[in-house]
Amino acid sequence: MHARVSVLFLVRNPIILAVTLQFVAIGSAPAQVTQVVDFNRDIRPILSENCFYCHGQDANKRQADLRLDQQDAALKAGAITPGDIAKSSLIKRILSDDPEQMMPPPKSNRRLSVEQKKTLERWILDGASYQTHWAFVAPTRPAEPAVQRVDWVRNPIDRFVLAKLESEKLGPSPEADRAILIRRLSIDLLGLPPTPQEVDAFMADPDEKAYEKLVDRLLASRHYGERMSLPWLDAARYADSNGFQQDGDTWQWIWRDWVVKALNDDLPFDQFTIWQLAGDLLPNATTEQKIASGFNRNHLLNGEGGAIAEEQRFVILFDRIDTTATTWLGLTMACAQCHDHKYDPITSRDYYSLMDAFNRLPESGTPQFFSSRIRVAAPFLEVPTEENSQQIAKWEDEIKTADGEAAPVANAAFEGWRTGLFADGKPAEGKGLPEPLAVILRKPEGERNDAEKKAIEPDLRKHFDEKVRPSLAGKMPVLGKAEGIRKQLAAYRSDKLPRVMIMSDEKPRETSILERGEYLKPKEKVTFATPAFLPPLPQGAPTNRLGFAQWLVMPEHPLTARVQVNRFWQHYFGTGIVKTSEDFGVQSEYPIHGPLLDWLAVEFRERGWSMKSIHKLIVTSATYRQSSRVNPELRSRDAENRFLARAARFRMPSLLLRDWALSASGLLDQRIGGVPVYPYQPDAVWEALAITKERDFTYPQSTGSDLYRRSLYTFWRRTVNPANMFDASSRQTCRVRQGATSTPLHALTTLNDPTWVEAARVLAEQCLKSSENLDARLTHAFRRVVGRPTTERDLNALRRAYERQATIYQANADAAKALLSVGASKRDEALNLTEHAALSAVCLAILNLDEALTRE
Fold it and tell me: Does residue 744 have a cis peptide bond before it, meaning omega lies within 30 degrees of 0?
């Protein structure tokens, strides 16, 4: 919005436009300083983007037997002669105009710029030194740089940021005012709006530690874990259904609740890692640790009739490796499934050796059908809720009572049935009996051992109770009562007793490298090993998932800590220090603030992997506390804010926008955890799934307070994502970088979806009851949504909007009634119809203000 106004203003003022453009041109002129060529920063990106595909690690695609990713190979082939560009065939080829000689070849559709060619020449003249990729070297704590504006620095983060700004002849922005800061913190740490009272208290607090106290309070909130779980659920591809046709439901929400609890408890990230990757393998593993291992059971499950079980098992295995590698290593390992990675030093042997640790799960590749609705796959853990336990206990008591009443009849029936087995006085043939029991019965009594003699009676009774007695229930009503309750209990257990899918190593298998990733074409067998280009597994470490998880959090591991603090930074600044947060490989972005990234990685590890501690460090920095306003120089010099001369400003994700509207209106149900709920969705939103009559795909909209749970708890169907969460991950695959979007379709949602319309109506009702004064009502609505106090300009705009709406609804009572009928909550019919409708429209407009939708 600000950019649009500025551009229009300049276009309409040509003199100012000319002066401004002249100023921008001067301000953005690059400094004429020759920078020392750095291989990782300047050369590797050029070679990786333009050369490694044909002259890299993958021998299957390598041309002319030339490797440019290894110094020795490049020197031996004569592609590079240090200090002599005339003898370096690389330079000859990139400068050639001959289509048969030039590199990259014309058919590759790649072109080197003049500047890139000059950079390669300078590199060779300087000695053509190579370096290990920066992300593959363990981070060490860099010294905090000296800066000029020491008074601006609040913690070491600021020294690194300020040093970069000063090197670029830029300065930081002023600190944002307190109303913006409390709102920013509330968005980032809780995802819920601060109340006007909380804003006022913070703005009036004279304590020099007022900001830190606010941070501590928000970090201690039970809603912190809910907010921080959202990116983790995207990474884990968490959903409440399997995907594919007939998309069966699961109980993985138990794992989701574990994540929220673990984050609230500040479970150290090393344990957070080990529990999720190998909690089931820990000595004397607890139920909680086993549930945590459900991270790698959040995959799609294909229950379609034509699916080949073993093929699907490998699909799941490949997904498991890709998700784990992206989440913890920040590497794209998927292509090594079929061939050696074309850019990163990951071979197919590395891929399948790592996969061996995950190839021990007793899974078939297809789900089990517990009911027409529920489909999960073993191994799983039964985790009854309190409600489940009470209901099961109630039915078990009823069965016990019914069995007591039926005992005489049942015993008589058993004796009659048993007698029939031995009617001819000869050893029974055992027809219809379990084979082990039938074998015993066929033996003459004198040939049966003591154990067999002892087993006959209980085994006969067990078979009778389970198989014969149910068939007699229709003839003997007293038996039918107990059987009826048993059927109810069995159906309840199948459909309502949660079974969270977990990991297990109960079925070790041989693992082979697969030709082109085809499960029917195994080649050389491999055993578990970590990728060869990374630190080796410590001597004596378990050669399984547990060893792998422990390896990830070793102090000398170069990736894990870096990858995680980069995603923390992405959470607060919209973009990570490394923009490609999913890829730290050789094609990743070279970090502008590399020293800061390394310092944070070491600090994170040395603080005991405390996530809350590192979050506090970031949000208490002066860097985070800056204003997000953009001036012309910053727009010209650093439009993406990579130098961090201001705070980030971005659209809140849809899950938060929904929660914000519900909370501002007072509708939000703030319960933590529990089974998924079904808030408002468009009519027939699931009907495309109903390809057969096997199950009912009618959307089961929730009622009562379940309609107003946080977005986190919305049932997440993989085949049809919640329609009003327009920018959310489909949860089909791992996603670690949020897609920031802003389209008219989003505005149609936030202006018309029942959630927002009802929230506006309920907020208006509160405002009407809070005061008789229009300005007070408008102020109350504005502050509930935006937080900050209103200005006279705000009130003038809101009054005009209210008056226009009042005129419309005064003339059209039916339109007013239609607006006020949206949503399940009941309206107070005592309120004036026109006033309520007009104020509801204004509240809806407030919810759709740029300031309301944006994290500033």
Answer: no
Dist CA 586 CA 779 (whole Å): 53
**Euclidean distance between CA atoms 595 and 413, whole angstroms:** 82
pLDDT, tens digit, for every residue of 792-838? Answer: 999 999 999 999 999 999 999 999 999 999 999 999 999 999 999 99
* Residue 509 pLDDT: 95
Q: Would you list the DSSP string of 89-136?
A: HHHHHHH---TTT-SS-GGGT----HHHHHHHHHHHHTT------GGG
Highest mean pLDDT among 62-66, 595-599, 739-743: 595-599
What contacts 361, CB < 8 A, 6 or more positions away? 379, 503, 504, 505, 506, 507
Using the Cα atoms of residue 676, residue 682, residue 683 and residue 688 in order, give the sign of their dihedral. Answer: negative
Euclidean distance between CA atoms 652 and 726, whole angstroms: 12
Contacts of 608 (CB under 8 A, 6+ apart): 268
Q: Is 280 exposed, middle or buried (0-12, 13-18, 19+ CB in 10 A)?
A: buried
Tokens of 189: 């740490």
Which residue is it, tokens 């003339």?
A: 811
3-class DSSP state of 531: coil
pLDDT band at 373 (very low <50, low <70, confident <90, very high): confident
Whether the pLDDT of residue 18 is over 70: the answer is no
Q: Which position has the token pair 């001959």?
A: 98
Average pLDDT over residues 437-452: 85
Show Cβ contacts of residue 39 under 8 Å, excluding neighbours closer than 6 positions. 123, 129, 130, 131
Contacts within 8 Å (CB) and 24+ apart, 835-838 = 835/768, 835/806, 836/761, 836/764, 836/765, 836/768, 837/805, 837/809, 838/802, 838/805, 838/806, 838/808, 838/809
pLDDT at 29 over 80: no
Q: 321-357 burial, b if ≥16 CB within 10 A, otherwise e?
A: bbbbbbbbbbbbbbbbbebbbbbbbbbbbbbbbbbbb
Query: Position 464: which residue type?
Result: F
Distance CA 172, CA 174 (A): 7
8 Å CB contact between 387 and 497: no
The end-to-end CA distance of the chain, in Å, is 13
Say if residues 522 and 508 touch (Cβ distance below 8 Å).
no
**Rounded to two decimals, what is the model's pTM?**
0.89
Name which of 668, 855, 849, 670 is nearest 759 in CA terms. 668
Q: How far, in Å, CA of 847 to CA of 835, rounded?
A: 18
189, 660 contact by CB (below 8 A): no
Q: Which residues pair with 175 in a beta bridge?
A: 626
Residue 689: what residue type?
L
Given a cut of 70, is residue 179 above it in pLDDT? yes
H or E element, residue 291: helix 287-292
- Asked if pLDDT for residue 3 goes beyond 70, the answer is no
Q: Yes or no: say if 849 and 786 are a contact pair by the CB < 8 Å rule.
A: yes
DSSP assigned state of 466: I
Question: CA 340 to CA 347: how far, in whole Å?
Answer: 4
Confidence of residue 692 (pLDDT cuts 50, 70, 90): low
pLDDT tens digits for range 694-710: 667 789 999 999 999 99
- Reduced to 3 states (helix: H, G, I; strand: E, B; else coil), residue 289 is helix
Gap between the Cα atoms of 164 and 412, Å rounded:
90
- Mean pLDDT of the residues in the chain: 91
Find out whether 469 and 483 touch, Cβ atoms under 8 Å: yes
Work out whether strand 499-501 and strand 375-376 pair parallel, antiparallel, or are unpaired. Answer: unpaired
Residues 459, 471: Cα–Cα separation, whole Å: 18
Of 66-80, 118-132, 464-478, 531-545, the one with minimum mean pLDDT is 464-478
The backbone region for 773, taken as left when phi is positive above 0, alpha when psi lies in -120 to 50, beta otherwise, is beta
Place of tokens 């039970």: 222
Q: What is the token pair recorded at 745?
A: 């379709």
The whole-number pLDDT of residue 28 equals: 38
Helix (H, G, I), strand (E, B) or coil at 524: strand
Instruction: Give yes or no for residue 467 having a pLDDT over 90.
Output: no
